[in-house]
Amino acid sequence: MVDEIIIILGSTNDDFGEVSPIGKGRLKVGYELSKTLENAKIILTGGFGSHFNNTDKPYYYYANKYLKSIGGDENLILAKISSKDTIEDAHLSYKTIKEYRPKTIFIVTSKFHEERVKYIFNHIYDDYNLEFVCDEYNGTKSEMENLMKTEKREMELLINFRKSSKGSRLDSNIYSKVAAYYDKYRYTFKKLISDINEEISNIQIDGDILEVGCGTGNYTDNISRNKDGKVIGMDSNEKMLNSAKSKFNFIVKNEDVNTEIPFKDASMKFVYNINFIHCVDDIQKFFDNVYRLLKTEGAIYTATHSKDDYSKNTFGFYFPETVNIETNITPTINSLNNSMLKSNLKDVTIYNIREEYLVDEKFYLACKHKVFSALHKIPESSFAEGLEKLKMDCKLNTKGYIHYTIIKAKKI
Question: Whole-angstrom Cα distance, residue 71 to residue 27?
């Protein structure tokens, strides 16, 4: 049993593997803390990255070496995490934390870094008791000014776009937490399914069909019925895919679109995504990849929301703070159009779909269990207020509406 886990956040090392003064300060604080606790273990974070470690060994290797030099023992180390930034420090450590479920987690960082660390870890480890311990690092005036500029820039990215400058997403673990509820309560919309099926039927070539960001496969399952070719659902979330696999009607691939789309050139006749394009880090790279995958006369179909859609959707009526949150992280329709054209996709077409649904118990439970990621980003008081209003409307057979903007194109 491990009562306490100390996560010592990584820093930088030079080309010879010498840990920086910032890193050494954190390691000293973490080690001294461990000596005051009866049953504590340490997690070291830090892998490779041009901004902090250009050697052939991960940062945690040098951190562990330094820890031993000041009296630390290898048995003290519970895990070593090859992370590239603070968001990954938190996400990649989470698996170990879940396995051991300690009473308290101590996160060791530097004072100048504390605000960002608290923002990230309090979001990801919302069901654990956290304590933050800081080394009082004091560099030169110019060094501290540069460090604070970096912190300000990264905090703005976190607050406005929920990601780091290295592309790590703050909310990437949300879907693991809600996968079962997502599968059970998240709606699929008939007009959207009908529109996609019609698009596929209009393509007079053979080839596979790919949904990028299929989640639990709710749409993929519907699209796969009565199709002659292979239908493939692709996602990077293991728990979501476990639900998708249970549906049997399509092939499932565990791949991260932000790394690569690992299928053969000219192998797909239709590639589509629904409520997913905001999860793509590099939109241009995404559409370049789609162009590569598509056969001639094949098509790409993206179902997303514009700012106007978000403001008109019934969901935003109950939880108005989500409108700006969603708008800030979703690429504009104009930017998607431009990226498609730049990727040499042709016949770009943009139109809207509006669908009515019943504000019922299923919708209420979907919101209660926060299967919509934006609900994790608003204050609990606002969430509770919206949920109570929604609960009352469920008894009145209230109608709800969702608005989609469709942007589609062809490879010619």
Answer: 11
CATH number of 4-170: 3.40.50.620
**pLDDT, tens digit, for every residue of 50-99?**
889 999 999 999 999 999 999 999 999 999 999 999 999 999 999 899 88
Helix axes 114-124, 141-161, angle to 10 degrees: 30
Q: Is the pTM of this model over 0.85?
A: no
pLDDT score, position 236:
82
217 Rama sector, left if φ>0, alpha if ψ -120 to 50, beta otherwise: left
- Cα of first residue to Cα of last residue in the chain, in angstroms, is 61
Sequence-distant (≥ 6) Cβ neighbours of residue 374 within 8 angstroms: 319, 322, 325, 326
Q: How far is it, in rounded angstroms, from Cα 410 to Cα 145?
A: 49
CB proximity list for 153: less than 8 A, separation 6 or greater = 165
Q: In the chain, where are the structural domains located?
A: 4-170, 177-410
Q: Which CATH superfamily is domain 177-410 in?
A: Vaccinia Virus protein VP39 (3.40.50.150)
Which segments in the chain show pLDDT lower than 50? none
Beta carbons within 8 Å of 262's beta carbon, 6+ residues apart: 253, 255
